[in-house]
Amino acid sequence: MNILILPGDGIGPEIMVQAARVLDKIKSEGEDITLSHGTLGGAAYDAHGHPYPDATQALARSADAILLGCVGGPQYDTLPRAVRPEQGLLAIRKDLKLFANLRPAMLYPELAAASSLKPEIVAGLDIMIVRELTGDIYFGQPRGRRTNAAGEDEGYDTMHYARSEVERIARVGFETAMKRNKKLCSVDKANVLDTSILWREVVTELGKTYPEVQLSHMYVDNAAMQLVRAPKQFDVIVTGNIFGDILSDEASMLAGSIGMLPSASLDANNKGLFEPIHGSAPDIAGQDKANPIATILSLGMMMRYTFGRADLAQRLETAVRKVLAAGLRTGDIATSGDNVVGTRAMGDALIAAL
Ligand code: NAD
Fold it and tell me: Reduced to 3 states, what is the DSSP secondary structure of residue 248?
């Protein structure tokens, strides 16, 4: 396992220290793991003048998988757009052709009180949202600003999907469903959009080659509603870039803290970039307060999706369950009366539980 570590900015280096300790532990048991280290985002701009420098690009291209902390910070907000930290993230995703974004929304029963929804609606929630990441209205041409026939200033974008783009993300959806409960819900807006009519046709056709998967279709407005009404009806959701952007953020809030949620962005060969969904949390950076669990679970996704090691993924997930069951909480997931620990102590507990 040739893994590139990119700590990034803010709390990134702190949470990554804990992930590296977990990797050391697994390596000490005889797993063949080689680590390399690089910079991305603001840290890369500071060191090399670019958020995705050549040195990082070379390391990223040769790695099997990449573990990223998070990027950004107020000190970079005034930089020209082309060298802002987030551009590093967009550049690496594009460079590595990471078209499939997998975002689980799960809620450990111990944390049900941290959700804004009633515990009985969300306790035990476990959804996977598969979002297409490189197409749709975010990249469609033409786009821009113009003066219309009436002389008025207008902005316009183009929603666009080619059959092959829908097919490859739908395949990831079906394959993911096969690894879980064999239930896939495809979300579109086929009552209004031609792009969605094609989407639904292609997903339905591909579904015939996955007879074991129970396929359903839902309009995106209804999906947004169902996610807060009865989220446990879903197992895997597959959808386009813009719908997935919105629904995955909505779903992550069901789970309470963003300090708990991992993500994966995969290419056609399951090479991937794995990262927590949260940002660099500058308000708590350097204070030993950050929750490292989302990063550890991102590592779990790497083991499962890039390396096909469900056994190691399960060990990491079980370790997280154990520390939560033992009552350990970082500040972001604590409710009154909880045993609040710092980043390092949470890492110690996770390694002991492993
Ligand atoms: P954020 O996710 O960094 O923080 C939001 C809130 O959640 C803060 O109160 C923070 O303290 C808390 N939080 C986040 N992660 C936590 C963790 N692991 N443990 C405990 N608490 C945690 O979002 P923001 O404040 O809007 O953005 C800060 C910076 O991060 C910005 O520069 C933004 O552009 C960047 N950002 C980066 C990514 C990424 O790297 N993928 C994603 C979102 C935002």
Answer: helix
The C-alpha atoms of residue 352 and residue 354 are separated, in whole angstroms, by 5
Is 318 among the domain residues? Answer: yes
Q: Are strands 272-276 and 236-239 parallel, antiparallel or unpaired?
A: unpaired
112 alpha carbon – ligand 1 mean position (Å): 22
296 Cβ below 6 A of ligand 1 = no
How many domains is the chain partitioned into structurally?
1
- Give the range of the structural domain holding residue 311, as residue numbers without chain letter: 1-99+267-354
Q: Would 36 be classed as within a structural domain?
A: yes
DSSP symbol at 183: E
Which atom from ligand 1 is nearest to the alpha carbon of 276?
A: 41
10-55 pLDDT tens trace: 999 999 999 999 999 999 999 999 999 999 999 999 999 999 999 9
pLDDT at 109: 83
In a domain, 40, yes or no: yes
3-state secondary structure of 166: helix
138 a catalytic residue: yes
Instruction: Evaluate the omega torsion of the peptide bond into residue 142 and state whether it is cis, within 30 degrees of 0.
Output: yes
Tokens of 50: 């670019």
Q: Is residue 84 part of a domain?
A: yes
